[in-house]
Amino acid sequence: MKEVLLLKDGELSLKGQNRSTFEDILVKNCKRRLSHLGKFTFTKSQSTITVEPMMDEAIDWDEAVKIIGKVFGIVGYSRAAICEKDLNTICKTAQAYLSDTLSDAKTFKVEAKRSDKKFPYGSPEICREVGGYLLSKNRGLKVNVHQPQLTVTVEIRDRYAFIHGNQIKGAGGMPVGTNGKGMLLISGGIDSPVAGWMMAKRGIALSAVHFASPPYTSKRAEMKVHELLSKVAEYSGRIKLYTVCFTDIQEAIRDHCPEDTFTLVMRRHMMRIASVLAQKDGAAALITGESVGQVASQTIYALGCTDQAASLPIFRPCIGMDKTEIIDISRKIHTFETSIQPYEDCCTIFTPKHPKTKPTPELLDKVESVMDWSELLKQAVETAKEEWITQEESI
Ligand code: ATP
Ligand code: MG
What we know:
21% strand, 6-stranded mixed β-sheet, binds magnesium ion, 14 helices, binds adenosine-5'-triphosphate, alpha/beta, VC0802-like, Rossmann fold
């Protein structure tokens, strides 16, 4: 049986004149993600995009549905059967295509959409005919027009009729790339992959920067970051990762700054380096997994000091979330199991016993003024390793 996918783009309808640009980006994103499964045509009409295979080749629809479920900008989608626009054929196709679902459901209704106004039957007649046929074939099934378990939709289009069951919930959000690019500071912990996912959901394409301090941090820790980003990339599309060698800077902090400011000075240098790399990469904001009050470097005062060192806005989508809420998302996007693997992060070396929780920017400016950091910062930017992370990668 020939099939198609019908995609509903939700929030896009709010975008007035920009709508077609948004839809074009959504189609481009879907096309790229599905490209390894075959060639498809994409047709836009009203708020539905129809995805139809170009050749008569067999498509791995289960895989296609899995991929489409992770594309931001789609609120719902249906896998539908295509058949001739003949009422008898429509009835038989509906029964054959939805037989399992029909036998599981207790209640149902039929909905008809008729975009081909030349079709000789009106919507009420289509519903009556198809509904009657399905009732005759499925013992125990009852009609419930208000709260049916199953809604069978029949769409009469120009060339064919489409038949599908309940719409599946999509990933929501906005198509990645419709809201510019942001640079994610990714550690290897639970929060930063979630933060990246949340901003990608709002249509922001991602680059990423990871600070590594070999030999204090290991190659395995870097591989962990790769694996986390590859999971995020299933939603955001491919991500350019910059790996910065942070060892010299961390050792200089250890040697020249008071212990209770180590983490804060480190964080401010991260922001400085990330700001330069972001601008070089065309990203207009930094993204972190910080949440207010979670650790000493995330008090309201510490975050203020961190902000001051960045030359771009910092997006912190987890800022008001509890750890349990962040974990819920990390489980949903399958980053949790990787995040909890125990590898050293540069934040966990040289950690002060009693970190300052009420720092001021003036204090940190003074602490940092003991030496000229510019050469070290420049070197860190210039030696950053660049690589693309795609969704296939795994540890
Ligand atoms: P996470 O689960 O994201 O690691 P966390 O609770 O461990 O968060 P911190 O280690 O204080 O918090 O880090 C706060 C944020 O700083 C992280 O969410 C991340 O955005 C950034 N960050 C921390 N370490 C690194 C690193 N090695 N490279 C890049 N960014 C980092
Ligand atoms: Mg961390």
